[in-house]
Amino acid sequence: MNVYAPVLDAGDRKFAVVVSRYNQLISVALLEACEATLNTHGAASGQIDVAWVPGAFEIPQAARQLAETGRYAAVITLGSVIRGGTPHFEYVCQGAADGVREIIRDTGVPVAFGVLTTDDLEQALARSGGEHGNKGEEAALAALEMAGLGPLLAESPKGSGS
Ligand code: INI
């Protein structure tokens, strides 16, 4: 069995982060963990560009523009959508998730989905540095892995002899 084995090292790759201002306390906690994780894996702060947008619904528009520049090995999206009493929640979540999926499909650039979709603020806090970890870290790790995997998939895996 030959396995494509990416190393979680940023090397000289650049990363873009799109983060929504809505529920800013959560966003800042996600962003800090994301940046720290990228730093830990070799991305200096100069290799990380951050774009703030108003809400999660706007994330795909900025993420697509950044992905299409070709400057970034991966784009990381961060934010939180917290359920209110109206269907607005569903539309914002759907728009963000569909939009991100379409960028990946259309550009081939990895886009990590670090947008929390929760029933309440407590669940969001638990996932932005609380008892359920920090999705900003998870999104950064996914971006690093996919950024490293892409170039490997372009060739046969080591040891396959072809
Ligand atoms: N945007 C969020 O990022 N999180 C939310 O919880 C949220 N709620 O609850 O409404 C939210 N709404 C704003 C939306 O993302 C757009 O910015 C707005 O509809 C303008 O296009």
Q: What does this protein look like?
A:
The protein has 162 residues and is α/β, with parallel strands linked by helices. The chain has one domain: Lumazine/riboflavin synthase (Rossmann fold, 3-Layer(aba) Sandwich). 45% of the residues lie in helices and 21% in strands. It has five helices and six strands. It has helices at 24-40, 59-69, 88-107, 121-126, 135-153, and strands at 15-20, 48-53, 74-82, 111-118, 128-130, 133-134. The strands form two sheets. Strands 2-1-3-4 form a four-stranded parallel sheet, sandwiched between helices. The chain has a two-stranded antiparallel sheet with strand order 5-6. β5 and β6 (133-134) form a beta hairpin. α1 crosses α5 (135-153) and α2 runs parallel beside α3 (88-107). 40% of the residues are buried. The structure holds 5-nitro-6-ribityl-amino-2,4(1H,3H)-pyrimidinedione. 5-nitro-6-ribityl-amino-2,4(1H,3H)-pyrimidinedione is lined by residues 20, 22-23, 54-58, 79-82, 84, 88, 92.
Question: Could you outline the blueprint of secondary structure elements for this entry?
Answer:
Layout: E1 15-20, H1 24-40, E2 48-53, H2 59-69, E3 74-82, H3 88-107, E4 111-118, H4 121-126, E5 128-130, E6 133-134, H5 135-153
Parallel strand pairs: 1-2, 1-3, 3-4
Antiparallel strand pairs: 5-6
Helix pairs in contact: 1-5, 2-3
